[in-house]
Records
---
Amino acid sequence: MTGAALQAAGGQAPASDWTIDQGWSSYSAADHAVWKTLFERQTRLLPGRACDAFIEGMRALPIGADAIPDFRRLSDALMRRTGWQVVAVPGLVPDDVFFEHLANRRFPAGNFIRSADALDYLEEPDVFHDVFGHVPMLMNPVMADFIQAYGAGGLKAQRLGALDLLARVYWYTVEFGLVRQDDGLRLYGAGIASSSAESVFALDDASPNRIAFDLERVMRTRYRIDDFQETYFVLERLDDLLALARIDFAPLYARLGGAAAFAPGAIAPTDRVIARGTGTHHARRRA
Ligand code: HBI
Ligand code: FE
């Protein structure tokens, strides 16, 4: 647990499920001000970039510019719509703890907020990433079921030693997914929605690949945690996640476990390429 998180948690030791009190009244004026800066910056960027489900979810939630949201009020709204809750955690929690929460429709959200002098730097998911990025999509019944299935699937994948394969599905959907709408490509992934630079890069930059989502292809694709993605996978429609939540991944793990992985920026002969990226961004970084 980080020092800031411990402080925000009032020094409590974590319970076995790692949940803590959000400690809402312990946020400082400076914490709320960081939230406001981030909220206003993202809210300007998202029209025309976030998918309709994200915008609608956000609109129906008690989330605004002026204060870090209270998880109890978020949970009330979520519970009515999709049966989810938001629970506070001090930062990253062990995989099995994370999956157990998701499988029970509890979303673990960091209770701390990043500091004002590092608005774009995150070591662990904070309240802005988790609440602004993830919670709006949890108001969507399809995403609500998909993330629960991911939690249940995670516990199973761990037993089968296939967690890396499953984690790639989460990464390229829940965190960095794009979806096609009639009016163009839109973001629904929380990692994009909560990042000002990546919400522009993922949709408007010539550098990354945009490839039609294919489950096996995604399971075989490594991802970057230190930079923007080199490839974004695009769903034809959000409802495609429903079928994905019902697939038994075990035979796929058995088949793909030995297969070579694709590099983050690779294009495969069988890909349905929506936009082949120039790769300029990552080439410049490597130089
Ligand atoms: N813990 N709080 C938190 N948030 C996450 O997104 C998270 C986590 N623990 C594990 C984890 N994610 C991932 O490694 C799994 O999805 C594989
Ligand atoms: Fe996340």
---
Amino acid sequence: MYEQNSHSILNEILDKLKPEIKEQELHHFYTRLGANFYSLFSLFQYLYGNRKDFKQQLLHLVEVMAKQYIKRTEEQKRTDLAREKDFNWFLSENLVGMTLYADGFADNLENLKEKVPYFQELGVNLVHIMPILDCPDEASDGGYAVSDYRKINDRVGTLKELQGVIEEMKKRDILLVLDVVVNHTSDQHAWAAKARQGNKKYQDYYYTYDDREIPDMFEESLPEIFPETSPGNFTWDDSMGKWVMTVFNNYQWDLNYSNPAVFTEMLDILLFWSNQGADILRLDAVAFLWKKIGSTSQNEREAHILLQLFKDCCQVTAPGVVFIAEAIVAPVEVVKYFGEDAVNAKECEIAYNATFMALLWDAVATKNAKLLNQGVKNLPNKMERATWLNYIRCHDDIGLGFSDMDIELAGYHAKSHRDFLINYFIGKHDDSIARGLLFGHNEKTNDARISGTLTSLIGLESMLEQNNKEMINKSLKHILLLHSMIFSFGGIPLLYYGDEVGTLNDYSYIDKLGKANDSRWAHRPKIDWEKADRRNQPGTIEYILFSALKRMIAVRKEIPAFADFNNRELLEISNIHLFAFFRNDRNSYNRVLVIGNFDAHSQKLDLSDISSHGFRINPTMRDLYSGEFPLINKNHLVLPPFHFYWISNF
Ligand code: GLC
């Protein structure tokens, strides 16, 4: 959009750019800057317009963007142009992801490079390498307490080795996702060190206070994120002689985004990693970016403005790079991270679908789809050019993030149902075979979350111990049922490393310094490659899971209706154990019926439930996943225990 004030400011800025920038051929950069400047300027002004140095800060921002553009390789620039043209590239049915720790899945980056063919073997073509940057050995929060944003942790490798991994991935058309921990730094970061030395400039990078007056006001409304290990939201720093805001762990200092210098530093870091070869950046803890006294300081409007600004700037310098919002918040809030009041996503293009994840776990515990159906029905619509990351497990705990209202609408009492779920997953309930662990138990509110691997939470760990063959088989089917849901729901399915070969809880964290009181380490395993090699031995658990997933991935990639164009139609069906939806191909009349049985017993779907939607199943139709004819008995489709079908109408 053309607007005179911002345009004249842009002219002023362009005049003032340093000669080393002006000399360069920056044709595409200037076109994009022109196109985005009105928005970029308005957002920057909204946040920082009352500062005397506003124009200077804006000039600095543009310089950072230009300098990083200059560093972008020719190949990256070609990718940018190609993705601008094919702007829906990340909505494709072709994408399948996996999240992993470089030193958990492999030994380190060098070793990870050797393991890249494994992704191709499975069909994974998007790999999220969890934080690999410098961080203290113990106070690391699994890498989310960064002490140097541009240096890779020695334990994991070097930048050169990462380049080696990226090259190997490129050869095989595998995309890279990297984390940028935007909300906080480690207390060992150089900015924190300078703040400690009394440097005012760097004290202003954080929320620092001489006394408890403001911290106490904040505390009145701030919840606690890690109540067991890090109660409260402020930490006294002796050498600085000040309180500093630490919403997560007491060694993670929250960055102060009301300071434009912080925004521009972080943008520089985002662009740095874009230039290192990340296709997608995962922005950590975005809900927390803006703090306001009297509020929970989550999901504030300014946090959204900051993300829009990051997006606008990134689109100018590296438009081929898209963002993932890690915002594990209520469903109505999550969709806002795609951007409010817009048609196309204008903040993060991708967001974790934590609600769907938690609802799937509810269906596991209850063996029915009542809440799953209710919760998905109430999942707000997302805009175009935005997509979900659908996952069952990740490196974090499982929070029961669905609303009390949905629980009640599904016919339960909210509080008792939540208690039931926690007890179920920690194996305290009579009917439970799950082996989960409590995480983040808050004694004041009695809230709790759950840790554990997919395999142990489903019950495979306990059933293996009992050598209960029937239940082992059922558990394997249960695991595949969950996968069939994330592969077909709409969005990018994201596997968690180890799940593809049935990795169980790892209890060794209990003896490790810095990990013992964080049960999330139970599901952050070191892969046992001898066990993983059994994926080639028919009859083993590893083989059953790996080959089934491999097939599921291959089949998903052949189903255009699985691309995410908001083309899901939820079905209301009479049998509470079944969860069903259609995926409609936007370019043809093809429709795929996805249906899963969450019960441990066979269940039937009354075919009239779906024929009323114009979908008729006839005996010649095959299940796309297995290639077999679905079981039909009179007017019913039969689903064996934990079975699913992907049935197409063509
Ligand atoms: C994100 C990460 C989590 C971490 C937190 C604080 O939620 O996924 O592992 O503890 O941010 O950085």
